Amino acid sequence: MGKLKHYRSVLDIRRGEDPVMDALLLHFMTENGLEYTIDPLKNASPEQIRFMMACKDETFYAPCSDWMLLQLLQSRMSPELQEMYLQQWRSFVRLVRMSCHDPYQRRKIMNLARHKFQMVMDSCITIPSRVMKRLITIFMSQSGIDDPHRQRKQNANAAAQKIVESTEWERFVNQCPETFHTCRRMDDLRFEMDFLEMQRLICASTLQSFDHWSEFFQDCGKVEEEIRDGHQTFHELHRLFSPQSGGPLRVLFLPYNSGGLIFDLQLIRAMLRRGHRVVLALKEGFYFDAPAFWDMEHDPVLAECFKEARVLTNVRISKNELLRETREHPFVIISDGTRERLNPYRMSVTLARVWKESDLIMVKGQENYRRTIMTSHSFTRDIFSYFRDDSGKLVLNFKPKASWARKFREVDILAKAEAIIADMRRASAAGNTVMFYSGIVGSIPGQTSMAIEVMNTFIRYLRSRLDGVYIINPAEHFEEGMDADDLMYMWEKVQRSGFIDVWRFQSVQDIERSFELMNRKVPPVWAGKDATYSTGCTKEMNIALDVQKKHRELQIIGPSPEKFFRRREYGVGKFCDVAIEDCNETHPL
């Protein structure tokens, strides 16, 4: 496509400016199996993507490097792109030959994979790593082998565990440099020593081979040289972890390979000792030597290493549950929901929420480096990337979060909730009835502003008609930048406070009355709508029924509860609904 040569950066590629480009981008997304509107059950919504990616306006994001995206959108095979495809093919061939011992089955798998691979080569618009994902899926489905590298990964973990239990390792980690023999403040010295330990662990954890580990640890001067060479990047890490930065960090850690994971755990324990909280994200299933979430069930070394960690199997955890788990457990293990390289479009809901709630993302390995550092796109959180290149050189990178990315901290959200609760408490003490009004805010796409106007109009009407009633209108507390996760977390604190006397859910009549008061006819998109259309209100009806069990005097007004429970949980990070499930499906009350 000729127009692409005018793009100086992938940040210049936007949707909504050229129908030809829009069609090409949609073709790219569908061919890579990443389009949410085509397959919402497998792919993340745009709102969930914004948990991780700080994309402005209609900027197009693809889970690959800048160079790769521009190559693929040209729809022609360059020698460099062809070589990257062939690298994937050769890796797949080695995998099949090593793991599949039945000649007939091996031949069938190879020929099926060859047909699929040739289709990719003819179109040359599929990301090479996505090609590998499809080939591996073919292999696993046809062979019945769920992890051909299981024994190999176990051996690597056992070898690494032997190293960390050795006296050489203990000497390497704890050797005190001469510069620490004097200090001005004990607190500063403690932190500097802990940070030096982290630097050494980062250098050691990137070992690509364990064959000559003893020489590596004996040559402590080489490690100190690597630390000096990475001074600028380590300086950013030092600033974040410093006690003066404002308290313990929430860290999301993305490892790279088995064996190296054992060293990563030493680094994680060093962070835990400083009071930081760490979430370790493992692959959902087989992806060569990458640690998988289920490896601990087969590997006694990992089972022992993870025995003090909180393992979360829920891949769609809510914000409330996540914050509770991370408060109660400093070390949590989750699945990233994928069997491929870092890909925000396929990440689990839990991973997306962890990313959003973290202060720092630590990514290890060259493949993660390509997906985070080698893209012009910004992320919502600071990223520290490290790996060893093919020559054995330590490569460190720090990518600060986008300047416009705002994080609503838990303490900030709780403060807003407490301010609302304080108003409710004063109203109740003054003898007023406290009413909470739940209504559609953003469940109709493109109608958020209208929904707020509808709610505000009706609340003004209620306040003019009801005496001695203090009405809480969520639309009046809508703050730009807060997504559904933040708002639902805040409102649940308010709703469970015990100060609500009447909980009113928006009805069809409420909406019709609002449009009447605005001297407008009800638009077709609003006809027949009520709170049952909102999955946020559905979640709130669950909360209302739960609160009513403790506070029997609570009155719930509006559509009957059973009409709400035909819907799923509200969309991740969005006000818009997910979908209506089978209306015949029962919902536990």
Your description of this structure?
The protein has 589 residues and is of the alpha/beta class. It has three domains: 2-143, no CATH class; 150-399, 3-Layer(aba) Sandwich (Rossmann fold); 410-563, no CATH class. Helices cover 47% and strands 9% of the residues. It is built from 22 helices and eleven strands. It has helices spanning 19-31, 46-52, 66-73, 79-99, 103-123, 128-143, 150-164, 167-174, 186-205, 213-218, 220-229, 231-241, 260-273, 300-305, 319-328, 349-357, 366-372, 410-429, 448-465, 484-495, 508-517, 535-550, and strands at 250-254, 277-282, 310-311, 331-335, 360-364, 382-388, 394-399, 433-438, 469-472, 502-505, 555-557. The strands form two sheets. It has a seven-stranded mixed sheet with strand order 3-4-2-1-5-6-7, with helices on both faces. A hairpin with a 5-residue loop joins β6 (382-388) and β7. The radius of gyration is 27 Å and the shape is globular. The N and C termini lie far apart (56 Å).
Largest sheet: 7 strands, mixed
Radius of gyration equals 27 Å
How many H/I helical runs?
A: 22
Q: What oligomeric assembly is this protein in?
A: single chain
Which class do the helix and strand fractions yield?
alpha/beta
**Residue-averaged pLDDT:** 88
Q: CATH class of the largest domain, please?
A: Alpha Beta
**Overall tally of domains:** 3
Name the overall outline: globular
Number of strands: 11
Strand order of the largest sheet: 3-4-2-1-5-6-7
| Helix coverage percent | 40-55%
**Strand residue percentage:** 5-15%
Return residue spans where pLDDT drops below 50 for at least 5 consecutive residues.
Answer: 574-589
